[in-house]
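Structure tokens
________________
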Amino acid sequence: MGTVPSNPSWNPLMPNTEFISTGFHVPERVVTNNDLAEFWETSDEWIQERCGIQTRHWTERGGETGSDLGLKAAQSALERADMDPSELDCIVYATLSPEHFFPGGGVFLQKKLGLTGIPALDVRNQCSGFLYGLSVVDAWIRSGQYRRVLLVGAEVQSPALEYDYPEGRNIGVLFGDGAGAAILGPAEESDRGVLGTNLFSDGRFAEHLWVEGAGMRRYPWVSHEDLENRKLYPRMEGREVFKHAVNRMPEALSALMEEHGVKAEDIDLLIAHQANLRINEMVARRLKLRDDQVYNNIQRYGNTTAASIPIALDECARSGRLNRGDLLALTAFGSGFTWASALVRW
């Protein structure tokens, strides 16, 4: 178990934020790399070599929505915590794939949980969304504004992929659908919970990973030209994204580790955003972490964007890979560019 410095400034009136429980859900439909050869010129060998993905889960077309997946993940977390939805004070919902232009998915999840009155905040920071949401939840709980908060990352990305164009392959093979959830509240012990988070962005690179079309920057806000020029699909400058990801995630986490007096050998588990196995391997090397200190599941789920970290968290918590008292490091990078990190005493 990694050592974590004590917190002499801990105030029971402003407690740390702890993870009470976690949950996740993915669609039943499993899509293999060989299945993708129906749409694009690709192969299992080509995909695994470039990103490490073997399978991903996709919803059936016209089937489950992001809030449907989020509901099942939330129900799993509630069951594990032996809580009723009525005990929740707030919902924070992170996604890059909203099921409607507005309102956000948080209120649809609230409705499906049978709740009224409590706030529902949507976070649109793409792959960094769960950690951005965690920072917000941590501040609310420390201040005493809320005591039981449901934090969800949920994505249904498969409908937005370019199945009919060869160019769609480079992005299409990466993404999966799924949702992860966590219930957070005030910790009763001074040395447990969220030790710190840090958040970053750099809008100079916003157009390196984005969807250009369908927005209020022009009139009409969506047009036939957008469809004809395929501006409604995601675009990525892969080399630039890779270069920044392998630098920004270790930088962010290293700064947080230094702030809290944590060394590489103190970390029991690193969960990085699951965008590309090759990125995560390089991040681990730059942080000088051993293989047994790192958890990856992109091989089975692909890039589930805001859902990737909470899905991995739940797998680790339920399997015994993450145990009470462990020092957990989290980091993410994505569109915006945005990136973030967190340290948690589990």
